[in-house]
Amino acid sequence: MRAPVLDRLSARLSRGFAAPVLIALIVLIAALPGVFSLPVLDRDEARYAQATAQMLATDDFVSINFLDEERNKKPVGIHWMQAAAVTALTGEEARQIWAYRVPSVIGALLAALGTFWIGRNLLGARGGLFAGSLMAATVLLGAEAGIAKTDAMLAGLTTLALFALLRLRRGADDPTFKRRAWAVAFWGFVGLGTLVKGPVTPLAAGMAAVVLVVWEAWAASRVEGAKFWPSLKSQAGWLRPLAFWPGPLLAILIVVPWLVSVQIATDGAFLREALGDDLGPKMVTGDEGHGGPPGYHLLLIPLAFLPAVLFLPSGIAAAVRALRAKTDLAFAARVLIAFSLPVWLLFELLPTKLPHYVLPAYPALAVLCAWGIMEWAQTKALWRWIGAVLLVLGAFVWTAAFVYLAIEHDGPAPFAILAGAGLMGLAVFAALASARGAVRAALLAAIALGLVWHVAGRGVIAPMTNLSPGPEAARLADQENLRPDREPVWSTYTEPSLVFTFGGEVTLLDIGPLRETLDASQPGLVVIDHSRAGEEDAAFLAELEQTACASAGLEGYNYSRGRPVRLTLHRIGPCTETTP
After folding, report:
1. What is the pLDDT of residues 429-468, one digit of tens each?
2. For the chain, how far is it from start to end, CA to CA, in angstroms?
3. Distance (Å, rounded) from C-alpha 67 to C-alpha 504?
4. CA pair distance 318, 311, nearest whole angstrom
5. pLDDT of residue 579
C-alpha cells in the first residue's frame, strides 16, 4: 500500500471506538491460539491452576494450597479471578486449563488498552493507536496472556495505575478535572495490583511519581532560577488528591481483609514465608536458579519486545530530541522515562531474573515506539538501522528456536520451517521498508510478524511437540481406561502439570517411599518416571509391571529439568473390569 493510503487508514482507525476495537482484536489473535492449544505448563501455571482448583473444591478462598502444602508465595487475587472464570465457563471438575487462562487474556487486554490511552494522552490519537497495536502484538505480552498466572494481569493493572497517575498530572491545572475520582481510581488499581502480586504495582507507580516530581522540580528550578526544595514542594502539588481518604481506604479494603484472614488461617505463616522465603531470596541471590547479570533484560529485548523493537531506537531518539530542545513534548519524554526506566533498572539490579519481570515497563516503551514512528522522518539513519538489525536478529533467533523445537521434540518440522520463513520474510520486509522511510508499511509488517509468532509458535508448533508428558499421561490413562473410577494416583513424575490434569488426587513421591507405602490390593494408578529410577529399583519395577492389571507407556521431554523422560502407567488393585 502507498503511504497516503496508509496515512488515511491510520487516521480513520484512530478515531472513535475503532482504535480500541482493533487493539483488542490484535490482543485476541495473539493470545487465544496458545490459550486453547497449549497443555497446562510446568511449573508455575500448573501450581496456580491447581491451587485455584483446590479453592473451588474445598470452598476455602482464603488459604492457597498445592496438594497438602501451603503455597505462601503470592497473594490471592489471581486465584479469585481464575475461580470466577472457571465457575462461569467450565467448572472445577472439567480441568480445562483454558478457563484458568481467561484472566490473563483480560490482563493483556487491559495492558494494551492502557498503553493506547497513555499514548493518546501524550502523543494524540495516532500515537495511541500505534502504541496500543504494538503492545498488543508483542511477544512477551501475548505469551503471558496465554499462561494462567499473575503477570499479564499485573501488567494490565499497573498500566492502568500509571494512566491514572498521568491523568492526575495532566489535569492539575484544569479546574473542571475530576481529580478525586481519578485519585480513587489510582488507589483501586494499586490495591488490585497488590492483591495480584504484592509490591510490584505500588513500587512501579510510586517510583514513577517520585522520579517525575523530582525531575520536573529540577527542570523548573533551572528555568526559573529558584531553589530546588521550594520547587519540589510546588511540583508535588498534583499528588495531593491521592490523600483524599476514600482512595487509600479503597486500597486497604481490597487488600487487608484477605491479608488478615490468611494470616489467621496460616498462624502467621503467609507473610513470614512470602517475605522471608519467596521475596527475600530474590533480593539477594538468583533464587531457584533464575539468576543473571545486570543487562539480562536488555539482552532479551530483541526477543521479548518483538516486533516493537524495530521502532524503539527511533523512539528513544525522539524523546532525547524533545528533552534537548525543551519542546512541549519534553513532558511526554519525562513521563515515559519515569514510567519505564525506574522499574526496568530495579529488575536489572535484582539478582533473580526472569524475562517477564520487566513487563510493566513495556507499555511506556511501546509509546516510545509510537513516537518514533510519528517522527520517523526526523530520525537519523543510524537509529533506523539499529532497530532493523534488532528486529531481524530477534526474528532469526525465534526462527531457529521454532525449527529446533520441532525437529528435536517431534513437532511439525515442515510447518516450523514455513513459519520461520514467514517470520524472516516479514522481518526483512519491515526492516527494509523502515530504512527506506515507508514506516506505515513497516508497522503493518511488524504487527503481522508478531501475530505469526503467536499463532504459529504457541498455537501450532509448541502444542505438537513431546514437551507435555504430564498431560499426555492423563490422556493416555483415559484412553486405556487405567483409572475408570478416579482412583488415587501415586506418581514419581513430580511435575505439577500431572497433578492438575489428573484432578489433584495425586501423591508425589520418589520410588523408595513408593515401594514402602504402596498397597497392591488398593485400586489406583501408579505413574513411574524411569529417568529417576536406579538399578536398585529394577526388581520393584519389574514386579509392579507383572502384577499390574494393565499398563501403558509414553516418552517425552521434561523441559523443567531439561531431560528426556519415559513414563509407565500401571493400574493396580483388584483386576476386575469396571464400567467407565
Report:
1. 999 999 999 999 999 999 999 999 999 999 999 999 999 9
2. 59
3. 7
4. 11
5. 40
User: Would you say 353 and 329 are in contact if contact means Cβ atoms under 8 Å apart?
Assistant: no
Res 299 pLDDT > 70: yes
- Between CA 28 and CA 304 the distance in angstroms is 18
Give CA–CA dist 208/204, Å, rounded. 6
Entry pTM: 0.95
DSSP 268-287: THHHHHIIIIIIHHHHHS-G
Q: Dihedral angle at the C-alpha atoms of 547, 548, 552, 553, nearest 10 degrees?
A: -60
**Among 104, 88, 110, 108, CA closest to 49:** 104
Confidence class for position 230, pLDDT limits 50, 70, 90: confident
Q: How many CB atoms lie within 10 A of CB 437?
A: 15
CA 277 from chain centre, in angstroms, equals 23
3-state DSSP of 417-481: HHHHHHHHHHHHHHHHHHHCCCHHHHHHHHHHHHHHHHHHHHHHHHHHCCCCHHHHHHHHHHHCC
Strand partners, 66: 69
Cis peptide preceding 307, ω within 30 of 0: yes
> Which strands sit side by side in the sheet containing 550-558, from one edge to the other?
506-508, 489-491, 524-529, 563-572, 550-558
Q: Return the residue matching grid coordinates 481529580.
A: 179
Q: CB under 8 Å to 240, separation ≥6 — which residues?
A: none
**β-strand 506-508 against 489-491: which pairing, if any?**
parallel
Q: What angle do CA 434, 437, 442 make, to 5 degrees?
A: 35
For the chain, the structural domain boundaries read: 3-379, 383-464, 469-572
Q: How far apart are CA 302 and CA 21, in angstroms?
A: 27
* Residue of 148, 143, 154, 195 lying closest to 49 (CA atoms): 148
The predicted-structure confidence for 86-143, as pLDDT tens digits, reads as follows: 999 999 999 999 999 999 999 999 999 999 999 999 999 999 999 999 999 999 999 9
